[in-house]
Specification:
GO biological process, one term: antibiotic biosynthetic process
Protein name: AB hydrolase-1 domain-containing protein
Radius of gyration: 23 Å
Number of strands: 9
Number of helices: 19
CATH topology of one domain: Rossmann fold
Distance between the termini: 48 Å
Largest sheet: 9 strands, mixed
Helix content: 40-55%
CATH class of one domain: Alpha Beta
Shape: globular
Strand content: 5-15%
CATH superfamily of one domain: Alpha/Beta hydrolase fold, catalytic domain
Order of helices and strands: HHEEHEHEHEHEHHHHHHHHHHEHEHHE
Oligomer: single chain
Pfam families: Abhydrolase_6
Bound molecules: 2-acetamido-2-deoxy-beta-D-glucopyranose
Structural class: alpha/beta
Keywords: Membrane, Transmembrane, Transmembrane helix
Strand order of the largest sheet: 1-2-4-3-5-6-7-8-9
CATH architecture of one domain: 3-Layer(aba) Sandwich
Length: 479
């Protein structure tokens, strides 16, 4: 009973704040004139063309062809690549493997510029995947940390085999680089922490390191509490400590107001669907309209963005790859935003911070690619010290951060990052860039430059490499 009351209160507050945000976002959409705006005939046509361009399996998209990887449990991942997985070209080429992982509310389509770069395609085997429940991949019943990370890990292990990184007799024959954004970044940070052998370099953009954010929140709350205690002990001079306490927790309050949409996604599913797609998909329209930074997207760019969120339509669901493969069944392709509730479930089922219970297959698979370095680390085993702080990334990482991200408070998301990085890691700041780094013109060039630097064996300083395409890019943390 003791634990019941606070939990009920929390639920009520979450529910109320969620509802408040549905109303708030609705009002904003009405004010912006988006809510009642039906798409014009031209927009509808533009979207249809964009979806055919992006999802028609019989055509290449941005120089990348469509493929599927089916896991041992039958789950089907959709991906695009410049080389067919498992082909002699993929197995034999002496080129690094680069895997791009998208965020929310996107799909492999968000990498149309970076993974679409002819320069990268020339120098690497490039793969952009759709996470479970997004784009053209299959759906999961539950998007818990264990389900999502198990599927993702098996996919990456399979890709490493099919692109000649590992074979039955030998592992790590080529470099593997993972480039990830937003939710893809959240999940990749978990992998870099809990399964670091999966890649040699992690390029991670504008997604929170959940364990660090939690720890930052706890730290700020503790010091605010101390200040309030001081105020209580000397009521006469209490004004300053109360103000200080308030200032201390202001990043938390700011992040809470920025995260209103997360609360809205905890509501009952019909309300969630309404929140995400109602008012002529006002929310998605407004997210994508603002995803290009200072530039206003052209109608075609808008259509590409919406297509990336929506995935294949009924028309594309009937297409086939050159190998005769098609999109997974069990999706209502005739419905607009057919996977929107799957996408929302990442926020509902604890994929970011829940415990990942690794299966025996995963442990064995990770062990087989770990190499000496990682094995020694685990076997020297003095425990806590070796493991670092909870959530610390255990592989070389380059965090590329659009500084003007309005969705993520920089104090909560970056303060203390140095303690979470290993040797040969950096945080690179991109001033003037916003959240959607793979889309904005300047930041996508920076991401491409970082990827190129990793592909070419990390010669020279990453800041110098990035400044060629983004002169103001600068390293703020270096390990
Ligand atoms: C997919 O693309 C092919 C090749 O361009 C085209 O012939 C076909 O009509 C397209 N399929 C659909 C359903 O649009």
């Amino acid at each position: 009973m003791a634990g019941f009351l606070p939990k009920a209160i929390v639920s009520v507050v979450v529910f109320a704040y969620g509802l408040f945000n549905v109303a708030l976002y609705g009002l904003i959409a009405i004010k912006r004139g988006l809510y009642f705006k039906k798409p014009t005939e031209k927009q509808t046509l533009e979207l249809k063309i964009a979806r055919d361009r992006m999802w028609n399996l019989s055509k290449d998209y941005s120089g990348l062809s469509h493929h599927f990887i089916t896991l041992t449990n039958g789950f089907k991942f959709h991906l695009v690549s410049n080389v067919k997985p498992g082909s002699p070209a993929a197995l034999n080429a002496d080129k690094p493997l680069v895997i791009f992982i998208h965020g929310w509310p996107d799909s492999s389509g968000i990498w149309r510029y970076v993974a679409g770069s002819p320069d990268l395609q020339e120098s690497a085997n490039v793969v952009a995947i759709d996470l479970p429940g997004f784009g053209g991949s299959g759906r999961l019943e539950k998007y818990s940390a264990t389900r999502v990370l198990e599927h993702l890990t098996e996919l990456i292990l399979t890709l490493r085999m099919k692109y000649g990184v590992d074979s039955d007799s030998e592992s790590r024959k080529k470099r593997t680089i993972i480039v990830a954004h937003d939710w893809g970044c959240v999940l990749s940070m978990r992998l870099a922490s809990e399964a670091p052998a999966l890649a040699d370099r992690w390029i991670l953009s504008n997604g929170p390191l959940t364990k660090m954010v939690e720890s930052n929140i706890r730290r700020l709350l503790t010091s605010a509490k101390k200040m309030l205690n001081t105020a209580l002990n000397s009521p006469l001079s209490s004004r300053t400590p109360i103000l200080q306490a308030f200032r201390t927790i202001s990043p938390i309050l700011r992040q809470l107001s920025l995260s209103g949409y997360i609360f809205a996604m905890q509501l009952p599913l019909p309300l969630v669907r309404y929140f995400l797609t109602g008012g002529n998909s006002a929310l998605m329209t407004s997210i994508h309209f603002n995803s290009h930074g200072k530039q206003k997207p052209t109608p075609q760019e808008m259509a590409d963005c919406m297509s990336s969120t929506m995935g294949p339509s009924l028309a594309e669901s009937k297409t086939q790859t050159a190998d005769g493969e098609s999109y997974p069944t069990g999706v209502q392709y005739d419905r607009d935003f057919s996977k929107i509730l799957d996408m929302a479930s990442y926020y509902r089922h604890g994929a970011a911070s829940g415990r990942w219970q690794k299966s025996l297959e995963t442990i064995t698979g990770l062990h087989s690619i770990a190499g000496e370095k990682v094995l020694r680390r685990t076997s020297s085993g003095t425990g806590v010290f070796d493991e670092g702080v909870p959530g610390a990334l255990k592989a070389s990482s380059t965090i590329v951060w659009g500084q003007k991200d309005i969705a993520l408070d920089p104090h909560l998301c970056l303060d203390g990052m140095a303690n979470y990085l290993v040797k040969d890691s950096q945080v690179v700041m991109l001033p003037q860039s916003g959240h959607f780094t793979p889309v904005e013109k300047e930041s996508r060039a920076a991401l491409e430059a970082a990827t190129k630097w990793a592909i070419e064996g990390e010669k020279g300083d990453v800041q110098v490499a990035l400044q060629v395409s983004f002169p103001e890019a600068h390293v703020v943390v270096r390990r």
